[in-house]
Amino acid sequence: MDETVAEFIKRIILKIPMTEMMTILKTWDFLSEHQLQTINFRQRKEALMHNLVLFCEEKCASLNDAASLDIIYTQVFRHQKLWDVFKMSKKTGRDPDPFDEDHFKRSFMKVLRRALQNVTVSFRDGEENAMWIRIAWGTHNTKPNQYKATYMVYYPQTPYVFISFSRLKRNLPLLSQVFETHNSTSPLQERSLWLNTNMDLRIIHENQLEKERVLKVTQETFGDYPQPRLEFAQYQLETKFKSNFGTSILADREEPLRCLIKFSSPHLMEALKSLAPAGIADAPLSPLLTCIPNKGMNYFKIRDK
Amino acid sequence: MAAEDLNTVFSHQQSNLVQLAELSDDLFSSLGEKVFRPLDKLPQLNTPTILLVSTEEALLQQLVDKMLREDCASQLLVHLAKSLPLPSNVTRPRIDLIVFAVSLHSKHSLQNVQESLRQVDTSFFLGRVCFLAIGAGQENHCSVHHQTILKLARTYQSPLLFTDLKTEGFLVAMAQPLVRMLQICAGHTPGVSTLSLLPLQSSESPFLKDL
What are the entry keywords (chain A) (predicted)? Predict the structure, then answer.
């Protein structure tokens, strides 16, 4: 058994209070019945710990077994951690696919491994269908730090996931691509489809929130269905010149200015719909443009009131 | 290049940069905003980080994919932003290289970059900034003259690369130098510092004509 694994198991066992020791060891289901029966709970903690580590060595405990024990410890003592809650928003119009646990686990590992080779990821089922995930982070050069792992609890049938944050701030950019922590005082955030296997965690979009706001506003304005097919819209302006700079030749002019603006396109409404997401215009668009389907007109005359 | 010539090069750069610093200090003090500085954070081990600022994020996505596929000993991190300043409530690593990408087909894209440039501290321009001009090949779509972007790059003393991000060949040809530049800026190439990138600028700089 690896020395680091032995040390890791020792530290976990030291953390467990004697009252919970048996329950946890039984849940772990790694040591044999015989070994469990021979444990003397009256001895001092250090002695007990040494015995347990010897038993683990007999059974050749691996890092994964130790990680499993760590998850169980966290499950029992979950109140010792601070959890943030995240809510994911699924794309509209799609029925939720039946949750495939293995596929999820494989995709999760794939996405994480693509960015970082040195991570230890462990899964364990919890009560009420929860899936507990433990991630120990390493870097390109260093092995994963098992003592500062991040835990995630995901309820597959719901859009909620709980994450306990460790002090390792540098992993936040990676996880924040998945769950953006914007404001720790209001942890409930909406995030688009959680696991997209094409997602590369090394690319971070800074304006993600703004983009999603724009998409949301565009969707509210234009809806999801195809737009009515229109080829042009014409605006005729007859308004007086308005100026903030005091008097000028144009501001003194009594007659209204006349101006004609014509928009033409093979599919005008789709073009207008794509203006804000493409970054060419601000969202929400001017009501003069968006009222076309509602009013059923595409020739407008705009006058001063 | 002889040592004395190098000295002339650098002192010329310095005087230009002092002028630039005075100009931007005025701007900054009037704006009173937080300024993007290159060395105000500790670097992370082996993660050179590049920030691409552009309104044309969709076009840049392909370039980014090619860059990440480049064979590189370091672990690259890419940040894509539409403009500066960046949202301040997210922790992010130290940025080693900023690439401002302007689409020559869009005046809005140029304007966006010009405004974002004001948010960057002058010490970034010692080799940690690079300009990318996209789409010069399609003359009839260009609304920004290539002289404009040349002038911009010259004003900010930074290299300018022309590219067309639509063809595979151009993408690869652009990805490699950018990755190498990033490695140099992150200090991952021994013996080469960001100041060595200064001669990559426009060859119409006056001092090079003397050599």
Answer: Centromere, Chromosome, Nucleus
How far apart are alpha carbons B69 and B76 in whole angstroms? 10
pLDDT in tens, A198-223: 456 788 888 888 888 999 999 998 88
B109 vs A105: CA distance, rounded Å:
41
In chain A, residues 176-235 whose CB comes closer than 8 Å to chain B: 176, 180-183, 200, 202-207, 209-210
Of A36, A38, A27, A39, whose CA–CA distance to A69 is shortest?
A: A27
Q: Looking at beta carbons, which residues of chain A come within 8 Å of B68? A: 200, 202-203
Of A202, A206, A210, the CB nearest to B76: A202
Which of A202, A210, A280 comes nearest B77 by C-beta?
A: A202
B-chain residues within 8 Å CB-CB of A202? 68, 75-78
For residue A237, the cross-strand partners are A259, A302
DSSP state letters, A203-248: EEETTHHHHHHHHHHHHHHH-SSPPPP--EEEEEEEE----SSS--
Please tell me the pTM assigned to this model. Answer: 0.54
Angle at A139 between CA A8 and CA B61, to 5 degrees: 145
Half-sphere exposure of B27 (CA within 13 A, CB side): 17
**pLDDT tens-digit series, residues A234-264:** 999 998 887 777 777 777 778 888 889 999 9
Taking each continuous run of H as one helix and of E as one strand, the counts in chain B are: 6, 5
Cross-chain CB nearest to A139 (options B46, B76, B86) = B46
**Model ipTM?**
0.70
Q: How many residues does chain B have?
A: 211
Confirm if B59 and B147 have CB atoms less than 8 A apart.
Answer: no
Condensed to tens digits (0 to 9), the pLDDT of residues B141-155 reads: 899 998 999 999 988
